[in-house]
# Entry
Amino acid sequence: MGQLWGPSLPILGGRILPMLQRYCVFGSYHPLTRRRLHINGKQQKLNRHWIAYSSASDNETSTSDIHGGRKDLDLPDSLLHDARILYCASPAMGHNKESHPESNKRVPAIVDALEKLELTPKHRGSQVLEIQSFHPSSHDDVARVHSRSYITGLEKAMSRASDEGLIFIEGTGPTYATQTTFQESLLSAGAGITLVDSVVAASKLGPNPPLGFALVRPPGHHAVPEGPMGFCVFGNIAVAARYAQHQHGLKRVMIIDFDVHHGNGTCDAFYDDPDIFFLSTHQLGSYPGTGKIHQVGQGNGEGTTLNLPLPGGAGDYAMRCAFDEIIAPAAQRFKPDIILVSAGYDAHALDPLAGLQFTTGTFYMLAASIRQLAAELCGSRCVFFLEGGYNLQSLSSSVADTFRAFLGEPSLAAQFDDPAMLYEEPARKIRDAIDKARVLHSL
Ligand SMILES: [Zn+2]
# Structure
């Protein structure tokens, strides 16, 4: 997206209001169509065709009542035990700007594809479970990653967004906000937290807990501790990582980020932390320009950041090598207690914002391999977080194939991947990059 949107502007950490006031205002507000949240009590909704779970009650409470923190969702053990996939969908319908690639069409497109390809609770019964009413994250949860001044500044900016319809909160993406952005961003972070809770609870019931997938936006991996960046508002995965440590005592967290762009926000948040291993594959030279191969962490965290920039044109061959030679051995050495995945689908050959050549089959391979890795290393505790992916067709078919990999079912990539769209991968440059990373990290 760097190429599309021009040069980076500096992040004005902790001073979001003055920053907001500097940007011009245009665009229109799209009403929030997602139902209001229910945070009191819980109710299990089951029928012949649909198994989902919500915490509905008679007393509706809006998302503004979140400052006291969250309540546990407590999914019934029987549901947790049977499920193979848990997912939350947080489409952020009010957070939208016309013709912006990070649009509110993304999550509905995925949900439609899941429905069409018979991967939803309606078709799968208790195998696939949607957690429908999850809690927004609390300010305290977010503040384990982001500065308080950023959080409160963004909250205050909502009244201005309400007056003006849409404002820009950061220039590099550009990252916009509407009047619902703050609440919907808390909701996205909260979806990840709920899935961590549920996956951890399930892992206590048996050896094969379900995998989680947070189908959320706005995405999170570019958001830095002091502010928003690159379409991202709060670092959903970073918040979940800290939460897993704080709430569940899962000390060692591995974050695998295969979005085409470097997850600079996640990287910054944990750069000196030896207990969080951040591993990113991304396109060399793409936005935001960070994630050089020699950036390996600092202080006590030296060695627990691994950046593997791949040359333009790298695709399925590159990622199979990267998984076997970098990702798997790094994880096996680190021995995580949980694996979290920044699952961006913008490395797909059809994606408009970058130049890698992943296919639906590449994403299937990654999901199946990471699932296997989680089973081997951390009791299958694993949650995926949606990051990028801007071609609605390749995004939705690739997420669907990810679900199929989670279920241990064959890929349907052949239906979606046209070999004619691909050209030869730059094998020598790929080999050089992987060898360099192996040497640097003694893998
Ligand atoms: Zn991306």
In short: Residues 1-50, 55-71 have pLDDT under 50 and may be disordered. The chain has one domain: 2-440.
